Every structure is written in C-alpha cells, then in structure tokens.
Amino acid sequence: MKSSCQYGAQHFWKMISLARQFPDNVKQIIYKVFSNNAYFEHPEHLLLIMLHYSRKNIRELAVWHILGSRDKKTKNSGGLRFFKLPKLNFEAADYIDLIDWSNCVVTESPLTMHIKDKDLKEMCQEEQFPTLTFEEFPCHTQSVERSVKLISKAAVKVCGETAKYGYIRAQFQARKEFPTFDNKGQNYSNTYYSIYM
C-alpha cells in the first residue's frame, strides 16, 4: 500500500467504491462520515495524484488547474487560503469526478509550488507519466493523532491563546522528562524497583 500523501485521494476513492456495496441505510451513514473527512478530496490533493496519472489528458487537466490557480494567486496575493472541504459526488465514475471543479476554489498544493510553469507544461506532454519527487509526508501518523489530541485537550482545559500555548508547552516538557525505555522489560523492572524498594 502506498502511504504517501500524494496517494491519499486514491485511497479515499477506493473506500468510497468499496462502500457502494452496502445497503442504502448503511451508505447514508458512511457517506456522511466520508463527507466530514474528505481532506484527501480537496483540490490540492487531487491535483497531486492527477499529476502522477498515466493518462495524458488527466495530467493536462491537472497542469491547467495548477497554472490557473497560480494566475489567481498573483492577482489576489496576500490573502489567506481557507481549507474548505469539498462537497462530494458519491456517484462519480472516477476519483477525479468526486468533486465539482467549477464550484470549488482551486489552490495549488505547497508540494508543487517549486515546479516552474515551463516544467509543468513539459510534464503533461510526455507520453510516460513523470516521476515527481515530493517530500515524504505520511497520510496518517500516530504523532499527528497525538498532536491533534493534545491541541483539542488544551482547547477544553484552558481559555486564551497564551494559556493554551503554555499548556501545550508544559505537556511537551513533561513528556521529555518522562523516562524512555528501549523495551517493555526495562519499564517493568524499573516499576518493580520503585514499588518494592
């Protein structure tokens, strides 16, 4: 299984296509969960996977969207980019059609910003799909889960940006001071000595 973030849209598409075999009442629940977690169907992620696609016309479409988003960025420079989840079309025949490209704001992924316009145009003209090298960002890691949990916990425990930042720093400091072990046996032996000695 390819666990890099550039394949996230394909994995999401696979889940949707597998969920189609369920009864309608189950599909309603699953589709609602998919809609709330459609981060890999954001146009930025779709454009990444489209650049790797074997069909030339799909790569051309990706390059067209990326160049268009670059033009919009130069016109509206200085503004914030909002990461809004797209509305999904669960009846789509391919993962590229899961979102309505005309109704969503297409922004370029930070992973492709270093590629020049000329190089992008050359990539879509090649017969073989290009091998792009991206930084390796896993789709989902335990450290990301831990960080999200810590930030959510801080938001519930304290009020204010400074207090929340202080709470998070204190948690990280406490984790650093906690002893680390190479294996579980070391942990158990230290626990035994601290209890019985």
Task: Write the topology of this structure.
Blueprint lengths: L7 H12 L4 H13 L6 H9 L4 H20 L41 H9 L16 H16 L3 H17 L6 H13 L1
Please tell me about this protein's structure.
By secondary structure, the chain is mainly α. The chain has two domains: 7-125, no CATH class; 142-196, no CATH class. It is 55% helix and 0% strand. It has eight helices and no strands. Helix 3 (43-51) crosses helix 4 (56-75), helix 4 (56-75) runs antiparallel to helix 5 and helix 6 crosses helix 7 (161-177). The radius of gyration is 22 Å and the shape is globular.
Poorly predicted ranges: none
Order of helices and strands: HHHHHHHH
What overall form do the CA principal axes indicate?
globular
Give the helix level as a range of percent. 55-70%
User: N- to C-terminal separation?
Assistant: 49 Å
Helical segment tally? 8
- Count of DSSP E strands? 0
Strand content: under 5%
Notable traits:
mainly alpha, 55% helix, 197 residues, 0% strand
In short:
The chain is mostly helical. The protein is built from eight helices and no strands.
